[in-house]
Amino acid sequence: MKKHHNILLGHGSGGKLTHDLIEQLFASRFSNPILAQHGDSALLPSSTDMITFTTDSFVVDPVVFPGGNIGHLAVAGTVNDLAVSGATPRYLSAGFIIEEGFPMATLELIVETMANEARKAGVLIVTGDTKVVDKGKCDKIFINTSGIGFLSADRNHISGGGRIQPGDKIIINGSIGDHGMAIMAARNDLKISTEITSDCACLNHLIETALDGCSEIKFMRDATRGGLGTVLSELVAGKPYGLLVDETRFLVRNNVRGLCEMLGFDPLYVANEGKVVMIVGEREADAVLSRLKEHPLGENASIIGEITQSHPGMAWLDTLVGGKRIIEMLSGEQLPRIC
Amino acid sequence: MKKHHNILLGHGSGGKLTHDLIEQLFASRFSNPILAQHGDSALLPSSTDMITFTTDSFVVDPVVFPGGNIGHLAVAGTVNDLAVSGATPRYLSAGFIIEEGFPMATLELIVETMANEARKAGVLIVTGDTKVVDKGKCDKIFINTSGIGFLSADRNHISGGGRIQPGDKIIINGSIGDHGMAIMAARNDLKISTEITSDCACLNHLIETALDGCSEIKFMRDATRGGLGTVLSELVAGKPYGLLVDETRFLVRNNVRGLCEMLGFDPLYVANEGKVVMIVGEREADAVLSRLKEHPLGENASIIGEITQSHPGMAWLDTLVGGKRIIEMLSGEQLPRIC
Q1: Which of A36, A140, A191, A201 has a C-alpha 20 to 30 A away from that of B211?
Q2: Are residues A119 and A204 in the same domain?
Q3: Which chain B residues are Cβ-neighbours of A18 within 8 angstroms?
């Protein structure tokens, strides 16, 4: 069988080339009994738990960057969206839109990464789709992943955040801004002495560790596009409570802070791909923090602030320089194609 | 609030513009209680049925064509993939990748169409994602829809096709080639006197009608990319049975046949977006055919051939001109970006 070094339009035709690509690349890497059914849809076992369902398209530029590639993001992003609702992520779909001429070797790398990440996270890629568009009609490759998780009734309260109240602590599992600045550095080919690495990671095992035996984790969200600032501002918008966080408690790596200053970005709004914000009842906050710190993805976790009775609907920041300011929702585009 | 006439990069930032776009366009049109939860993932009720899960990305060019638009396809394509497994389609996700500068009015039309089609099909759009890429980095708009359906145990046999045997009849619900040729005519701005209209439609209600009280529908597949020919050739590949279909029983509309001849296409391989191929036990074939014909989307249904004991693994065609030929799997690209 002929080996192609680049993606051809025919790979998206639904005919023999598509068939070969699916068999030789996707099915062999993503291999599992459900995918092997090869139906128009994947058949999954029923569950008495509630179902959580999410989708995300990834258009990151460049597709390969320090710390990961678009396939890494596509698995982690969707796994994390499921995990922050308190669900156990189980099944993913993968939809590829590929530009004609895209190197087969890069596609193989991406698919390999997706397979590895899915394996580590304990999820199965069970259904997929491939489209190829003419050269110049998309930029290299876009990937959509949708995901299904199962949510047991005793964790049902997490996704809505309905139990949040003043005094609850705000925890994040580590440094902010790494992913966004890794992409910016890679994109602009900046000569930075210290390489910045994306924090891209599946957080479901870390979150399981924190949730295990804990009943006071009241809300979680991953701080991706729009960064920590957007999560905080959305968290209190229209709510009968506010929040106050302390900038001195945020970990921002020196190389990330340096590049942010150079390019004029505020790390608070720079995308992360391996950071979860948790709202935890006061009594359990220290216990949750200790558990997070035991996991490699949470070793730099910290309590960064708390939910307040005062200034409802607003997120306030105690700044590094000693002042106070409101964390606004970002209005325009800070970093396009960051994920 | 400022009304934008075109999509800006900021609409994909995850900040305020994204928020406004979601509220004003997506949430208002797709409105339902599950979507209104606004979580990272949608929370769906559990079910004792098996779950079916599918994904499809749509990159059709042009995005608006006679008989529909990309939004129409995005809903129908995924609903149909679920329905042909015997499942009841229930929930969809919608992931948009939009080119900077895309007209807001066209996006509104597309979203409106998706909302209408979903309503008619009885499915809810419960979760979504929006990315915007710089001008020239994608072609207008790409949409991914993933879908969840529920499959009761008594229909479990349909998706795998394991009960197919010689003597079973092959049924299709109407004419072939309409969608593909509608796109070609629209794309090339051909001056064709009789306008060709896409057959794009959600088939789940038609399929329900056929399945209701019937136990001998053994397999279904929608004949999209690659057309009827690809479905037939895949149906028997590697199987201990073959099939024989009769070209005189295929309905090909005159304008579709004319354009196919002009452009050198074989209607057998041209995409449909509202056609399902059913394999039905001999005893029930006439009953299923009558039921299909009572539905507007099945009025031109016909039995086009049968599963054979002879020539296992091969699909044979009795041609219009009186010969016989093998229906091969299409090897390259016939029509790029048809869906």
Answers
A1: A36
A2: no
A3: 225-226
Q: Which parts of chain A sit beneath pLDDT 50?
A: none
Residue A67 lies in a domain: yes
Contact A225 B127 (CB under 8 A): no
Quick one: average pLDDT of B238-248?
A: 97
Do residues B130 and B243 share a domain? no
Per CB-CB distance under 8 Å, the chain B contacts of A337 are 131, 133-134, 137
Sheet bearing A315-318, strands edge to edge:
A217-222, A276-280, A169-172, A302-308, A242-246, A315-318, A324-326
Residues A142 and A271 in one domain: no
Q: Is A99 on the interface with B (CB under 8 A)?
A: no
A chain contacts of residue B333, beta-carbon cutoff 8 Å: 8-10, 12-13, 15, 17, 132
Secondary structure in 3-state letters for A200-261: CCCCHHHHHHHHCCCCCEEEEEECCCCHHHHHHHHHHCCCCCEEEEEHHHCCCCHHHHHHHH
Q: Identify whether residues A90 and A119 lie together within a single domain.
A: yes
Q: Report if residue B4 sits inside a domain.
A: no
Domain final residue, candidates A155, A183, A206: A155
Is B46 in contact with A44 (Cβ distance < 8 A)? no
Tell me: the pLDDT tens digits for B34-61?
A: 998 877 789 898 888 999 999 999 999 9
| Residue-level pLDDT at A313 | 97
The average pLDDT across B215-231 equals 94
Residue A274 and residue A186 share a domain: yes
- Residue B59 in 3-state DSSP? coil
Q: The dihedral of CA B147, B148, B152, B156: what is its sign? A: positive
Residue A213, pLDDT score? 82
Higher pLDDT, B208 or B263: B208
- pTM assigned to the model: 0.95
Please state the rounded mean pLDDT for residues B93-107: 97
- Range with the poorest average pLDDT among B90-99, B154-163, B222-231: B154-163
Q: How many domains does chain B have?
A: 2
Q: What is the pLDDT of residue A287?
A: 97
pLDDT tens-digit map of B160-187: 889 999 999 999 999 999 999 999 999 8
Residue A137 placed within a domain: yes
Answer whether residue B243 shows pLDDT above 90.
Answer: yes
- Identify whether B14 is part of a domain: no
Instruction: Tell me which residue range forms the domain holding A89.
Output: 32-155
Give yes or no: residues A290 and A174 share one domain. yes
Neighbouring residues of B271: CB distance < 8 A, sequence distance ≥ 6: A14, B177, B179, B180, B183, B223, B224, B225, B226, B227, B335, B338, B339
Chain B residues 132-171 with CB within 8 Å of chain A: 132-134, 136-139, 142, 144, 146-149, 151, 156, 159-160
Give yes or no: residues A111 and A191 share one domain: no
Q: Choose the mutation target among A146, A207, A270, A338 for the interface with B, i.e. most B CBs under 10 Å.
A: A146
Q: Specify whether A187 is located in the same domain as A315.
A: yes
CA-wise closest residue to A291 among A209, A171, A221, A214: A209
Most A CBs within 10 Å, among B53, B78, B268, to test the A interface = B53
Answer whether B51 sits within 8 Å of A52, measured CB to CB: no
CA pseudo-torsion sign A335, A336, A339, B1: positive
Q: What's the pLDDT score for residue A194?
A: 67
